[in-house]
């Protein structure tokens, strides 16, 4: 496995690659992962950061003359704002971007950097890629520039950039290392504004007149950026836990080729967005984050260990189930993945209801009155339905508060002859609960409904256990107390009319139950249980898997959070609210989940092979090619101890 490869690499560089801060220590053998919270990192006075920072008032309003070296997408993205602020812009790039420069009002220098430098810009803004920065610095004719010219970079790694600038830029030039924590894509999703987006900077070497540096920073402050002053080393420490992890998750998901389904959850849609954003970045950027941030290898190994730990938990419990089957005579429903022909059009699953006042009110008995049962009951009572409830735990007070009649005895509840029995039990307890129900107390043709996150399992259990004259409706509200706390409008509700009697009364009763959700604005999706599980394995199970892996890393907000990282933190927060039993149930009772878990593992292994393959080439060059550029890079990242 690649994890052994990474462990071998770590053993080769024990003093340079392993983090020494207590809060970011290597995971212990018990897999108790530390937190990445800002408060947990002890910083010296020399590596402090402030958030936000107010830039000094400008005494000189004159515009800056800024030379952008590297005029690709990102250089053009910054140039548009710099030009709108009235600054004079010059640009150079290996590729001919003269048309784009003309459109933005930028003077473009096609071939000769000497011509650009002889225009004596106040600021040289490096918008090069991580991998090409050193080559570019070597080619710059510093002698053509005025002494004390301000050099600024915008790379996603900072210690590497700082080391190179201090090495190549003459001593009488100023150096400002920056990282705008946004780009064309994230700014676009922020309605084109930079307001609230973070801009990290470190005044590495600013001598004499500071107004030029302040004037440059003021561009971003005026645009509403959250200005964060922090050392390059601290930036990289935080970024390994936020930016690198975000890109890693995005690339794993991209490898899985995830697609939108008719039953997307909000969490899954967030992952689709993350994969889409990652797709727009080159692998070189990701590789640069890995190789030029000395903390990234540690984070990759921790994520590897977290995934392995999750797999062990799942397979350990699965082993226990099999042992019970073999030695204690317990039976569990077996599942066979069905060959389901999927519709290509999501709209094929949509089912329209005409909600009107003619829908009759129902008497609904809820079995399992925990958080989710109470969550559904609140809306049912609001709509005027009569709700009865039973649970192993005494929820008398909660029921009274909601206007629900609570029963401590199932026989008593069933003798009230509810028209609908709504099972709100956990996945793992459903089979046991079904076997204990006193069906003889109910009217024949009673409608049974479940709300489990897997559908083939309850369908089979219902068909096997319920009397033939009972109706069966399998449903899955694709939301819960957290995601549905502000209403159900637009949230998906999946259902399958497994067995509904032919007479009008029974059909009307089923439609009246479904109308509860249609009235609240749910997106009603009718599909078979097999289709649901096929889609859910690729969306719901993967979403929970990513959330639980990240939860084991103990990720927390940092001063340099990106929008993508905030998405992951929200996913972890939502996942942490669910029990492991729910996740285990999704795994055990969805016949497609095992395949998705393996695909996730293969995608992660493939990504690590790409990274370590390129790293191997780098080391090979160092050992046998005596490549000076490679040696300098290795020294800046601490890998040179391998020699």
Automatic annotation (TrEMBL):
GO terms for molecular function: arogenate dehydrogenase (NADP+) activity; NAD+ binding; prephenate dehydrogenase (NAD+) activity; prephenate dehydrogenase (NADP+) activity. InterPro entries: 6-PGluconate_DH-like_C_sf (IPR008927), NAD(P)-bd_dom_sf (IPR036291), P5C_Rdtase_cat_N (IPR028939), PDH_N (IPR046826), Prephen_DH (IPR003099), TYRAAT1/2 (IPR045011), TYRAAT2_C (IPR059064). One of its GO terms (biological process) is tyrosine biosynthetic process. The keyword Oxidoreductase applies. Keywords: Oxidoreductase. Residues 64-344, 362-641 form the Prephenate/arogenate dehydrogenase domain. This is Prephenate/arogenate dehydrogenase domain-containing protein. It comes from Brassica campestris.
């Amino acid at each position: 496995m690649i994890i052994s490869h990474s462990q071998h690499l770590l053993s080769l560089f024990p003093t340079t690659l392993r983090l020494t801060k207590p809060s970011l220590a290597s995971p212990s053998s018990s897999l108790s992962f530390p937190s990445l919270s800002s408060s947990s990192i002890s910083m010296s006075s020399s590596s402090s950061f402030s958030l936000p920072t107010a830039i000094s008032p400008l005494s000189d309003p004159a515009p800056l003359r800024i030379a952008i070296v590297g005029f690709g997408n990102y250089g053009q993205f910054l140039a548009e704002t710099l030009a709108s602020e009235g600054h004079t812009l010059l640009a150079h790039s290996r590729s001919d971007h003269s048309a784009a420069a003309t459109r933005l009002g930028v003077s473009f220098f096609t071939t000769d950097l000497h011509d650009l430098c002889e225009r004596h810009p106040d600021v040289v803004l490096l918008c090069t890629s991580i991998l090409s920065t050193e080559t570019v610095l070597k080619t710059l004719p510093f002698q053509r520039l005025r002494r004390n010219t301000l050099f600024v970079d915008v790379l996603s790694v900072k210690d590497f950039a700082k080391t190179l600038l201090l090495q190549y830029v003459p001593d009488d030039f100023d150096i400002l290392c920056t990282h705008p924590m946004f780009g064309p894509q994230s700014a676009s999703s922020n309605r084109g504004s930079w307001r609230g987006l973070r801009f990290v900077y470190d005044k590495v070497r600013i001598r004499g007149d500071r107004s030029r540096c302040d004037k440059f920073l003021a561009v971003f402050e005026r645009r509403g950026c959250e200005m964060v002053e922090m050392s390059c080393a601290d930036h990289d420490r935080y970024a390994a836990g936020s930016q690198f992890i975000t890109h890693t998750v995005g690339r794993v998901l991209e490898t899985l080729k995830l697609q939108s389904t008719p039953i997307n959850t909000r969490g899954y849609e967030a992952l689709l967005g993350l994969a889409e954003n990652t797709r727009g970045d080159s692998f070189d950027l990701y590789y640069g984050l890995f190789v030029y941030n000395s903390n990234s290898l540690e984070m990759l190994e921790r994520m590897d260990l977290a995934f392995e730990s999750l797999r062990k938990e799942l397979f350990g419990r699965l082993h226990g189930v099999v042992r019970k089957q073999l030695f204690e005579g317990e039976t569990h429903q077996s599942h066979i993945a069905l060959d389901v022909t999927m519709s290509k059009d999501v709209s094929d699953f949509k089912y329209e209801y005409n909600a009107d006042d003619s829908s009759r009110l129902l008497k609904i008995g809820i079995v399992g009155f925990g958080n989710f049962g109470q969550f559904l009951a609140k809306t049912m009572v609001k709509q005027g339905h009569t709700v009865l409830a039973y649970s192993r735990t005494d929820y008398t007070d909660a029921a009274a508060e909601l206007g629900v009649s609570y029963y401590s005895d199932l026989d008593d509840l069933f003798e009230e002859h509810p028209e609908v029995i709504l099972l709100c039990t956990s996945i793992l307890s459903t089979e046991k609960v079904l076997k204990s129900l006193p069906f003889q107390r109910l009217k024949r043709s009673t409608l049974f409904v479940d709300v489990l996150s897997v559908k083939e399992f309850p369908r089979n259990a219902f068909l096997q256990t319920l009397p033939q004259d009972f109706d069966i409706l399998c449903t899955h509200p694709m939301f819960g107390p957290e995601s549905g706390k502000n209403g159900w409008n637009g949230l998906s509700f999946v259902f399958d009319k497994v067995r509904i009697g032919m007479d009008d009364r029974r059909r009307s009763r089923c439609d009246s139950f479904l109308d509860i959700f249609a009235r609240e604005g749910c997106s009603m999706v009718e599909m078979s249980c097999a289709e649901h599980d096929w889609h859910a394995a690729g969306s719901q199970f993967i979403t929970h898997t990513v959330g639980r892996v990240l939860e084991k890393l103990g990720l927390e907000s940092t001063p340099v959070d990106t929008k993508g990282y905030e998405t992951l933190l929200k996913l972890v927060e939502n996942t942490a609210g669910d029990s492991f039993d729910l996740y285990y149930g999704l795994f055990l009772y969805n016949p497609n989940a095992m395949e998705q878990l393996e695909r996730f593992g293969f995608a992660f292994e493939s990504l690590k092979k790409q990274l370590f393959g390129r790293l191997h080439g780098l080391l090979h060059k160092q050992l046998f090619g005596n490549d000076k550029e490679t040696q300098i890079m290795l020294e800046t990242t601490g890998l040179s101890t391998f020699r």
